[in-house]
């Protein structure tokens, strides 16, 4: 059994893999790390290796806690990748984006794949049909846009994301929801159109915590997979330990 741990900007997510498939996954706040890891290994004592991925600075104690139970690989820009990385500054490329690129490569090794991760930031990552990661884009995420409108103005409230009934808002709050949810939907569709104009037979994967706001709103055909990052981490764990 494999354990993958994704330490994000807001939550920690982990998943247990057996024979390449997820048999358990969960998310929690960072303060619960020690107790959750102990509970997990009590439930799945046959876990024998793990991969740790962190978008920020990894706390040594987190690695050490997992290392008490199994072998640990910490994902970095120096980890082995199954694809060619043509990013101009590979040391600055987030390990979450590396994992998404790996998942794209393994699931569509001879095709053009664009991965859109709607999380704290919205990231776009492109792997072409030659097995080459060519880069992408980073855009403010949904909650970041709501927070910016509140913090950068005198009168706009801080809202939580909500479903959009109509793209024409008839109150300040519905106008803000339209600006964010409809605005991001139009952005994502526009970016997909740009990539389709350059890459033939493009497969588009939509993932991330806020992907459900956009999956049904996009005019482009996409494949929604909320576990795509976790699957990519498992692929990289196998690639770096076998």
The portion of residues forming beta strands comes to 25-35%
The CA-CA distance between the termini, in Å, is 14 Å
Q: Which spans have pLDDT < 50 for at least 5 consecutive residues?
A: none
- Strand neighbour order, sheet with most strands: 6-9-8-7-10-11
Query: Which radius of gyration do the C-alpha atoms yield?
Result: 19 Å
State the helix count: 6
The count of β-strands is 11
Shape: globular
SS-based structural class? alpha/beta
Sheet with most strands:
6 strands, mixed
The overall pLDDT, averaged over residues, is: 94
Helix content: 25-40%
Provide the succession of SSEs: EEEHEHEEHEEEHHEEH
In words, what does this structure look like?
The protein has helices at residues 33-43, 60-67, 95-107, 142-151, 172-198, 228-241, and strands at residues 2-7, 12-18, 21-28, 49-54, 71-74, 84-85, 112-118, 121-127, 132-140, 202-207, 223-224. The chain is globular, with a radius of gyration of 19 Å. The two termini are 14 Å apart. Helix 3 (95-107) packs across helix 6 (228-241) and helix 4 packs across helix 5. The protein has 242 residues and is of the alpha/beta class. A six-stranded mixed sheet has the order 6-9-8-7-10-11, with helices on both faces. A five-stranded mixed sheet has the order 3-2-1-4-5, with helices on both faces.
């Amino acid at each position: 059994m494999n354990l993958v741990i994704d330490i994000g900007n807001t939550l920690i997510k982990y998943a247990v893999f057996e024979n390449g498939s997820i048999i358990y996954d969960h998310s929690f706040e960072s303060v619960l790390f020690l107790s959750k890891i102990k509970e997990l290994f009590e439930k799945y004592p046959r876990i024998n290796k793990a991969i740790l991925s962190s978008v920020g600075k990894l706390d040594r104690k987190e690695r050490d806690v997992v290392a008490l139970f199994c072998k640990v690989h910490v994902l970095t820009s120096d980890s082995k990748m199954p694809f060619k990385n043509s990013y101009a500054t590979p040391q600055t490329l987030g390990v979450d984006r590396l994992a998404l690129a790996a998942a794209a490569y393994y699931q569509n090794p001879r095709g053009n794949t664009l991965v859109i991760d709607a999380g704290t930031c919205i990231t776009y990552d492109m792997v072409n049909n030659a097995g080459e990661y060519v880069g992408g884009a980073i855009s403010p995420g949904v909650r970041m846009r709501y927070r910016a409108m509140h913090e950068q103005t005198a009168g706009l409230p801080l809202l939580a994301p909500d479903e959009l009934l109509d793209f024409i808002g008839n109150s300040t709050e519905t106008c803000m929801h339209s600006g964010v949810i409809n605005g991001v939907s139009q952005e994502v569709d526009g970016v997909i159109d740009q990539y389709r104009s350059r890459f033939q037979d493009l497969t588009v994967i939509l993932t991330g915590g806020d992907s459900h706001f956009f999956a049904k709103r996009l005019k482009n055909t996409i494949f929604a997979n909320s576990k795509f990052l976790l699957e990519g981490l498992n692929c990289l764990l196998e690639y770096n330990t076998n």
